[in-house]
Amino acid sequence: MSTVTVMPTSLGGTRYKEVKEAMLAALTAQEWKGGEVIPSEKRLAERFGVSIGTLRKAIDELCAEKILIRHQGLGTFVAQHRRDRHFFRFFRVVRRDGERTYPAVTLVNFKKTKASALIAAKLGIESGARLFVFTNALALHGKVVVIDTVMLPEATFPDLTETMLRDRTDTLYNFYQDAFGINVTGTDERLRIARASELESELLKIDVASPVLEVERIAYSLNQKPVEYRLTRINTEEYEYIASKMKDGES
Amino acid sequence: MSTVTVMPTSLGGTRYKEVKEAMLAALTAQEWKGGEVIPSEKRLAERFGVSIGTLRKAIDELCAEKILIRHQGLGTFVAQHRRDRHFFRFFRVVRRDGERTYPAVTLVNFKKTKASALIAAKLGIESGARLFVFTNALALHGKVVVIDTVMLPEATFPDLTETMLRDRTDTLYNFYQDAFGINVTGTDERLRIARASELESELLKIDVASPVLEVERIAYSLNQKPVEYRLTRINTEEYEYIASKMKDGES
DNA sequence: AAGTGGTCTAGACCACTAC
DNA sequence: TAGTGGTCTAGACCACTTA
């Protein structure tokens, strides 16, 4: 019976919420890592001093938030970002006929800079704090359609290098998870029309200042802290942005 | 013990799923209408021949899908679309500074026509089936920013008239619910850039063929049947489309 | 066969609302 | 005070996975 994880019954509302918070804390502390199995429900119920039913309610919510994944007969796992799994949860560009494909990513540039007041506010960091900024060109069906400009606080991604970004073998969010223990659990996105910059128009093979769909994204970690700021620009001549919940076959 | 609502234990998977389907059927049949309270959990458990826990699990899912709403001490209610409640669940246009406001709606035109093959496919009806088409201009902060063109199958909305649309006092989806018993429970949306038509440019006070954000929406009813097809066009100079889940204060 | 999560039960007690 | 939903329990039994 671990004293660290026993919870007061009086604070924070209900038992299962307390259990949920304790599990989020354990996940944030990387006690269990992406893709790993967590202890059985019986063990966790003992550890937290609650009944199985209560423990299950906490896990129910974590599964609904796609932080954990249950597999009957196997166990409960820490959700992992993978190209072949939850990729289309965050990548919402599809061809107009509905055809979905994985993008071929090319790193266009990478630099270290300092956060402007605007970016700092979005990321909840101090103005002037060190920042990584890099741009990816994403090709679908052999044609560049999407340009991502990604901004990451150095404090959250220490020692990130251009080489690490080039050598990653899976998705960006999988990389954040494996290399930095950062679990992206949700995003806020706002869409509007923008005009293609010179670099963008060149990569997208459209005229300068052509209208493109801009997506401003803030990605949040397990503890609801912003960890990534991203501006995406999409050529929607043949593709579009799909906003709704995917059906079960979201994969 | 009603024989109508007793369910076979063998079919359709699990007990609570069966209960959920039976409740969806009762809602579709308008046994309980929008805004009304449904029977207590104890009564429903007796009616369906399951324990309270099982009945609760069915209701849990219906609440998660925003079909029902629980109020402790009061009862469980059929969710109702209301300007002051779930309005921003489906209206996703906000000013760039984040300010949200209710649109002032003006009905621009209304006509009866027949479904093209394309529209018919989207609505799951037969090509050439009778259709209502109407256009609304939506003003935010005193300025027209959004143009909605809405298409409704006559078979689903019999005897709809222009007057009914003008005289409605709450939201469109509230009107569908009260006047036709149609509960919109979800939408699919796709976004892309389009060019303003002559009418749109006039209403939006922008040049003809200016780029506008187009949102193509299919709205689904309780039984997952498409009930509305809508093309929205947004001037994103001062406003934007917010794609992410709202926080709890979504109202 | 052993271990896992999935479902279901039959209650107890608590918190909130209305009268 | 009575009735509602909200939480929690301690188990039983089922279905699935691995060995």
Automatic annotation (TrEMBL), chains A, B:
The keyword Transcription regulation applies. Keywords: DNA-binding, Transcription, Transcription regulation. It holds the Pfam family GntR. SMART domains: HTH_GNTR, UTRA. The keyword Transcription applies. GO terms for molecular function: DNA binding; DNA-binding transcription factor activity. SUPFAM superfamilies: Chorismate lyase-like, Winged helix' DNA-binding domain. One of its GO terms (biological process) is negative regulation of DNA-templated transcription. Residues 13-81 form the HTH gntR-type domain. InterPro entries: Bact_HTH_transcr_reg (IPR050679), Chorismate_lyase_/UTRA_dom_sf (IPR028978), Tscrpt_reg_HTH_GntR (IPR000524), UTRA (IPR011663), WH-like_DNA-bd_sf (IPR036388), WH_DNA-bd_sf (IPR036390). It comes from the Bacteria. PANTHER family: MANNOSYL-D-GLYCERATE TRANSPORT/METABOLISM SYSTEM REPRESSOR MNGR-RELATED, MANNOSYL-D-GLYCERATE TRANSPORT_METABOLISM SYSTEM REPRESSOR MNGR-RELATED. This is GntR family transcriptional regulator. It comes from Caballeronia calidae.
